[in-house]
Write a structure and sequence with these properties.
The protein is α/β, with parallel strands linked by helices. The protein is about 40% helix and about 20% strand. Strands 1, 2, 3, 4, 5, 6 and 12 form a seven-stranded mixed sheet that branches. Strands 9-8-7-10-11 form a five-stranded mixed sheet, sandwiched between helices.
Length: about 375
């Protein structure tokens, strides 16, 4: 069922929408045919940040934002097709991850909520849309995340070489790809990626992110603070596990910062960069066999200071997925195009060894054109 699919992805960094036009068969054939990034308007971004951290959201405001994002996602898909010179009628489906507002996979009622109304995407584009990927896995007893390791396995596996795929978005996640295909692919969220770094620099300097980690590089790691942050029980919890910025939130950070009120803000930023790198390395070192190399994707790949720390803490080569055929900024959007193809083929998209689901399931709901 090789064909053209679009993947739409907005992650925990809350910066904008990635749109990928992909030719795929839902297996190992994956060829990018176009890509477009659209930043969120500042008003939308500000509302998303408030809502993601709010205990309660007014119902009308929630419904409006869901509709507004649906229209925005649809426009992104249409602009991508126009830019690529492809007619909507040649696209079999859109896979829309949507924007996560709340992810709480543990407790009495495990749940995860993504918005960007897929009805509007299907109506505006005239393309069948697959959305709501996480909740079927949760219904089957899984975490609902991470879902991209199945795609990592198809695209980045290398026979005879143990690899780790590291996605650094707002939250970071690891995929273990054993060189022996008989071994299970595993993966989990490691904790904060860019989310705390972005919050802290925006609060202190008014910037959306720390370009190349330059501000962090100007500071010094506060060892006592780093140890206190790493003591959070999430880091030592066994997989399957997933998390979000509602857990590793500004409030979480501010509670830890109270004894360090007199520290320079750039030293806090340096410490938070060490936190991302060391929390990843510590959990990676817990694997039965260390990877020969780490392939990095997501926005964090552009933070050169963070990558230097990863090499130091992990003790193995750390390189961009671009060296292995997929641009690091496009991996997740490409993955949801691939997952949409699998959904239409009635093939499972989750990996129970990753999410903890009782069995493989077909992911997503289908909204016909």
């Amino acid at each position: 069922m090789t064909g053209l699919y679009i993947g739409l992805m907005s992650g925990t960094s809350l910066d904008g929408v990635d749109a990928a036009l992909v030719e795929t068969d839902g297996a190992r054939h994956v060829m990018e045919r176009g890509w477009l990034y659209t930043p969120f308007p500042s008003g939308v971004r500000d509302r998303l940040r408030r809502f993601c951290l709010a205990d309660e959201i007014p119902l009308e405001a929630f419904a409006r934002l869901d509709a507004e994002l649906g229209e925005l996602f649809a426009r992104c898909a249409l602009r991508l097709l126009e830019q690529s010179g492809v007619s909507p009628r040649h696209v079999r489906a859109i896979g829309s991850h949507g924007q996560t507002l709340h992810h709480h996979p543990n407790g009495a009622w495990p749940c995860s909520l993504q918005i960007a109304d897929p009805n509007r995407i299907a109506e505006r584009t005239g393309i069948t849309t697959v959305a709501d990927f996480r909740r079927r896995d949760i219904a089957a007893g899984g975490q609902g995340a991470p879902l991209v390791p199945a795609f990592h396995r198809e695209v980045f596996h290398c026979r005879g070489e143990d690899r780790a795929i590291l996605n650094i978005g707002g939250i970071a996640n690891l995929t273990r790809l054993p060189g022996d295909e008989r071994e299970d692919t595993t993966g989990f969220d490691t904790g904060p990626g860019n989310t705390l770094l972005n919050f802290w620099i925006q609060r202190n300097l008014g910037r959306l992110w720390d370009e190349n980690g330059q501000w962090a590089r100007s500071g010094h790691c506060i060892d006592r603070l780093l140890h206190a942050l790493l003591a959070d029980p999430y880091f030592s919890a066994s997989p399957p596990k997933s998390t979000g910025p509602e857990y590793f939130s500004p409030k979480w950070l501010e509670n830890h910062l109270r004894p360090f009120a007199l520290q320079r803000p750039q030293d806090i930023q340096a410490t938070l960069t060490h936190l991302t790198a060391k929390s990843i390395a510590d959990q990676l070192h817990g694997w039965s066999s260390p990877p020969r190399r780490i392939l990095v994707c997501g926005g964090g790949v552009h933070n050169t200071f963070l990558l230097e720390l990863l090499r130091e803490y992990c003790g193995c080569p750390v390189e961009s997925t671009s060296h292995h055929g997929v641009d690091p900024d496009r991996v997740e959007a490409t993955a949801f195009a691939w997952l949409a193809c699998r959904t239409l083929m009635n093939r499972p998209g989750n990996l129970p060894a990753v999410t903890g689901a009782r069995h493989p399931v077909v992911l997503g709901a289908i909204f016909p054109a």
